[in-house]
Specification:
The complex is a heterodimer of chains A (141) and B (332).
Chain A: E1 9-15, H1 22-33, E2 37-45, H2 47-56, E3 61-66, H3 71-84, E4 91-96, H4 100-108, E5 114-115, H5 121-140
Parallel strand pairs in A: 1-2, 1-3, 3-4, 4-5
Helix pairs in contact in A: 2-3
Chain B: H1 3-11, H2 17-22, H3 26-38, H4 41-50, E1 58-64, H5 70-82, E2 88-94, E3 103-105, E4 120-126, H6 134-147, E5 152-158, H7 162-169, E6 173-178, H8 185-190, E7 199-202, H9 210-223, E8 234-236, H10 245-262, H11 264-292, H12 295-304, H13 311-325
Parallel strand pairs in B: 1-5, 1-6, 2-4, 2-5, 6-7, 7-8
The chains are: A alpha/beta (141), B alpha/beta (332).
C-alpha cells in the first residue's frame, strides 16, 4: 500500500474562549465528506491540549477556528509547541476573522494558509489535500 | 538531541521507533500506531523486537450501542485508575462513512479532563481506515500501548456488527454498556453482543426504565441457561456524575485478579491468540490472492467481458489460477 493512499488525518479544534463552534463543525463535516479522518477536539482548548491531541493522533494537519481575535498569539504558540513536540511536519492551518496583514505575518512564522469569510469548503479541502501530499512526498524522499 | 538528529526526527519520526516507544516517547507511540493501523509492513518487521515483552497490560473492552455513554464511562474509569497511579491507554473506535470513507471521530471531546495527563494516551480510530480488519488493527494498537508501558488498555467500540464483536473478543475482559429507555437491548442481542459480556453495565441509571432493563437482562441470561456462578454481573452507573463507577472499577479489578489466579485469563488469551493468528493468515492469504497474484484484475476483466458467468464457476477458475501460479495442489 502506498502512503499516498492513506486517509489524511486532521485535528479540528477551537482554542480560546469564544463559543462559536458552528464553523468548526461545518468544516469538520466537509473534511469527513472529502474522505478525511477528522478528530474533533471540541471547544475551549488550550494550545498545549491541542498539541497533545495532535501528537497522540499522529495527524497530518491541525485546523483551528479562531473568532476571538486572539489569532496572533494562538497560532504561533500552537506552531511552536507542535514543533517542540516533534510535530514539525504537521501542517497548521485554520480560519476565522483574520486581517490579511495578520495572515501574512503568521505565514512568516510557519503557519499555513488561513481562511477568512467567503472561503468555499472546496478551497479548504483542496488546500489541505495538496499541502499534505506535498509534505508526505517530502518525508518519503 | 543534536540539531542533526532533531531535523531528522522532524521528517522521519520513524527512527529507532521501538526503543523510543519503550522509552515512553508519545510521538513514537503515535507513529507506531499509525503503522499498525495502516497495515504498514514495517510494523510486522519490528514486531519480533518487542513481542516477548507484551502481555503485561490489562486489556478491557468497552462496547455497547451508540448513546449508551461509553466514552464518558471510559473517562471515569481512567480517572479512577489514574488515582491509583496506573497508566492508561485508550483506543476509541468510531465508524467511517460508507460513502466518502471519511470519519468524524469525536470521542475525545468527552474525555477532555484527561487531555494533559501524561499517564493517559488516547487514540481515535476509524473503522474503514484500517487495513485488513478492525480486530487485527485493535490487537496491534493494544500491543503498541502495552510496549508503551500502559497498565490498563481500554478499547472502546460501537457494539454493532460482527467486526466490533470480534474486537470485544480480543480482550481480557469486556464490558457491555447499555442504557435504559433506548429500546436497544433487543437490538444488541441480535448483534451477538450479549454473548461477549463479562460485565453488564447499565449506565444512565438515573433515567426511567432502569428496572425494566435489568429485568430484561436477567431474563436473557435465564433464556441462555447460563449457570448462576458464571453469570456476568449487572452493575449500574451514572457516568455523567460518577455514581457507581468506583464499584464498577473494583468489580473489574476483582474479576481480573480472580481470573489470573484461576488460569482463566491465560486460557482466554490463548483462545484470543488462536483467533488472531487465523485473522492474520486469512488477511495475508487474501492479499496474496487478490493483489500479489493480480487476480483482482483477472476477476474485473472476466466480469467486464460481458458473457454470462456462473459465480461458482468463476470462483473455481480464480482459485485454480491461483494454485497454478503458486504451484499448489488442488483439492483431492
Amino acid at each position: 500500500m502506498q502512503a499516498s493512499e492513506q486517509p489524511i488525518r486532521v485535528l479540528v479544534a477551537k482554542p480560546g474562549l469564544d463559543g462559536h463552534d458552528r464553523g468548526a463543525k461545518v468544516v469538520a463535516a466537509a473534511l469527513r465528506d472529502a474522505g478525511m479522518e477528522v478528530i474533533y477536539g471540541g471547544l475551549h482548548q488550550t494550545a498545549d491540549r491541542i498539541v497533545e491531541m495532535a501528537i497522540q493522533e499522529d495527524v497530518d494537519a491541525v485546523g483551528l477556528s479562531i473568532l476571538s481575535g486572539a489569532h496572533m498569539t494562538l497560532f504561533p504558540k500552537v506552531r511552536a509547541l507542535l514543533s517542540e513536540a516533534g510535530g514539525g511536519h504537521i501542517l497548521l492551518t485554520g480560519g476565522g476573522i483574520i486581517p490579511q496583514e495578520d495572515m501574512d505575518a503568521l505565514a512568516e512564522q510557519g503557519v499555513g494558509r488561513l481562511f477568512g469569510p467567503g472561503t468555499t469548503l472546496q478551497q479548504l479541502v483542496d488546500y489541505i489535500r495538496d499541502e499534505v501530499s506535498n509534505r508526505r512526498a517530502a518525508a518519503r524522499s | 538531541m543534536t540539531a542533526a538528529t532533531e531535523a531528522d526526527a522532524m521528517v522521519r519520526p520513524e527512527r529507532d521507533l521501538v526503543a523510543r516507544v519503550r522509552a515512553g516517547e508519545s510521538i513514537a507511540c503515535a507513529r507506531m500506531m499509525t503503522w499498525a493501523e495502516r497495515g504498514d509492513a514495517r510494523f510486522a518487521a519490528v514486531y519480533g523486537e518487542f513481542e516477548s515483552e507484551l502481555g503485561r497490560a490489562r486489556r478491557i473492552g468497552i462496547t455497547g450501542p451508540p448513546g449508551a455513554g461509553k466514552s464518558t464511562l471510559v473517562e471515569r474509569l481512567a480517572t479512577h485508575w489514574r488515582a491509583q497511579e496506573r497508566t492508561i491507554g485508550i483506543v476509541a473506535v468510531d465508524p467511517s462513512s460508507p460513502f466518502s470513507g471519511g470519519a468524524l471521530l469525536g470521542d475525545r471531546v468527552r474525555m477532555s479532563s484527561l487531555a494533559l495527563d501524561k499517564g493517559v494516551f488516547i487514540r481515535s480510530m476509524a473503522t474503514r481506515g484500517v487495513f485488513g480488519g478492525l480486530a487485527r488493527a485493535t490487537d496491534d494498537l493494544a500491543d503498541v500501548l502495552d510496549l508503551y508501558d500502559r497498565d490498563d488498555i481500554l478499547l472502546e467500540t460501537v457494539g454493532v456488527g460482527q467486526s466490533e464483536v470480534d474486537v470485544a473478543r480480543s480482550t481480557d475482559l469486556t464490558l457491555v454498556v447499555l442504557h435504559p429507555g433506548g429500546g436497544d437491548t433487543i437490538q444488541a442481542m441480535k448483534a451477538g453482543l450479549m454473548e461477549v459480556a463479562d460485565v453488564y453495565v447499565v449506565n444512565k441509571a438515573d433515567m426511567p426504565g432502569l428496572e425494566q432493563l435489568v429485568h430484561q437482562l436477567t431474563d436473557t441470561l435465564d433464556v441462555r441457561d447460563v449457570p448462576l456462578d458464571e453469570r456476568p454481573p449487572i452493575l449500574t452507573t451514572v457516568a455523567s456524575s460518577g455514581e457507581g463507577v468506583a464499584e464498577l472499577a473494583e468489580r473489574i479489578d476483582a474479576l481480573d485478579a480472580e481470573r489470573r489466579a484461576s488460569g482463566k485469563r491465560d486460557a482466554r488469551r490463548a483462545a484470543n491468540l488462536r483467533l488472531r493468528v487465523r485473522r492474520i493468515v486469512e488477511g495475508r492469504l487474501q492479499h496474496d490472492i487478490w493483489q500479489e497474484s493480480g487476480l483482482a484484475r483477472t476477476l474485473d476483466e472476466r466480469v467486464a467481458d460481458g458473457r454470462t458467468l456462473s459465480a461458482y464457476g468463476l470462483a473455481d477458475e480464480i482459485l485454480n489460477a491461483y494454485r497454478e501460479r503458486r504451484n499448489l495442489e488442488g483439492p483431492a
